[in-house]
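name: query_chain
kind: protein
chains: 1
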Amino acid sequence: MHRSAWTILIPLVFGFTSTAWAQQRLPDHRTISHVASGGGWKTVMTLVNLSSAAASVTVTFQDDTGLALTLPLVVTQAGASQSQVASEVTRVIAGLATLRIESEAPAASATLTGWADVISLGSFAGFAIFRQRGSDGRDSEGTAPLESTNVAALMVPYDNSDGFSTGIAIVNTGSARVSLVAIVRDEEGIVLGQYGVPMIARSHTAFVVGDRLPASVGRRGNIEVQFIGNTVATSTLTAIGLRFSPAGTFTSVPVVPVAVR
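structure:
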């Protein structure tokens, strides 16, 4: 083939291929590991479009059993707020703009808990702040980052000494039931106990570790949560920790991805 023909053909071929790849790009699924609304709890989610181009984002809320979690929502975009009751929010966000989603069911209602799946083709950053208002009017807040993890294990430090207690929220975003094991270690890294944590598909669980993992009572150390069996290829594990003080206030604790030893 003559060189001039290649000059014409190459841009056509590679231009078509690049377009096809762009059209076939899979949506990005990222996770907010804990959402709480009602019974004194409020969650405020903030999403930022990091691109200079407009992009669509869908937020789906799911309950502890993996079903749709319907919440009272206030969605604020470009300074305008809209109230709705829904389990899903879809918006097109302008470049470098912000979307805010609030949920606060009545204080007298039961607390609705779950997690959020954030789906987009664009580049987004974000977080959720969940707040509890105590009977004395004081607020405590924790932060759940917008994260994307596909790891075999996660580790969270715990402190159940001197009146403190630690909670943990875990999400199985995969489409299959999984079995997890929680390994409790003390401050010297010595294993104190191991406990099974079964989770159905796309489910969420939150608990006080002293109640569910009794070897941690009265101690400090770390808890490693990992899959049992070869399920990590089809499942994604995310989590967040909470540290409660003797006064009943709390703060969030970062969770660290680790390699299985």
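note: The first strand starts at residue 28 and ends at 37.
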